[in-house]
Amino acid sequence: xxxxxxxxxxxKRGPITWAEYTAGAPSLFxxxxxxxxxxxxxxxxxILEVQDAGFAAKLAMSLYAAVLDAIAAAHFFxxxxxxxxxxxxxxTVRYDDDRFDFSLSVGDGQIFxxxxxxRFEDFHSWYVALxxxxxxxxxxxxxxxRTTADREFKIQRGYYTFKFLLHALETRQTQRSxxxxxxxxxxxxxxxxxxxxxxxxxxxxxxxGRIDTRISRWVRSRDAWRLERYDVEAPANKxxxxxxxxxxxxxxTYTDPKTLEREVFKFKPFLNEHDAAYVDFLREKAIxxxxxxxxxxxxxxxxxxxxx
Length: 308
Hints:
- There is one protein chain.
- The protein is built from ten helices and 15 strands.
- It is α+β, with helices and mostly antiparallel strands and 308 residues long.
- It has two domains: 162 residues, no CATH class; 109 residues, no CATH class.
- The strands form three sheets. Strands 1, 2, 3, 4, 5, 6, 7, 10, 11, 12 and 15 form an eleven-stranded mixed sheet that branches. It has a two-stranded antiparallel sheet with strand order 8-9. A two-stranded antiparallel sheet has the order 13-14.
- Strand 10 and strand 11 form a beta hairpin.
- Helix 3 packs antiparallel against helix 5.
- The longest helix is centred in the first third of the chain and has 21 residues.
- The chain is globular.
- The two termini are 35 Å apart.
């Protein structure tokens, strides 16, 4: 893991527009027409009571008011699209809107807000409207848990996770179809050949099954340490036609590698870093940096759910 310092990138006049967000990288965002999934996860102490159906139902009803406040502040309206779902182990409030759908759930040891795949531009509209409500929403959830379970809860770590599924991989100049292993060779020195030795030869690469990589690095952002993670999965299904990308902006207790001193994780500032996760990390680093380097000389499409 590499340590680095980064200054936040922000729009000078209110929420960043889609035109501003995609400026300077048209070919990248043409390929990234869709996002597969977004989730904001927070880890909390265990909630054994949620396994009880009655407790889960009561919790879901209490979460309803918090989500109602959030969609009102985001100007989503359509309050009749809200619904409550509960079962032993989980309490959920869903917002089944045609454009701004998402769900908020509480399970044993976790709070998570999830939005399923959509056009990236639609996701952008949803995110810049609801993102400023994340801190208040999750703080209200913690308060609901305290009241319902009659004890204190504290968020211990959090993750902003953005997922993309790439397909139709081909070279830009010749439009030749490319396997995902061809692109993964940029991240790997090689894979084991028939003798078990690392090789980047054609025989070894074309015989590869699943290849996954996970790269993480610590950065100093807004006076706190954050972990940035880049996951790339290259399954062998569909003849290696797709790449699964997961970009994560993570906050947790940081341990200095030199002094071994620990810096406490403060969850409220982290939840207010929705723009840092989306602009500074996802756009500037994950897309315009990492993805641009990985897919240099290659064209691609994207999907909201599965490979076409």
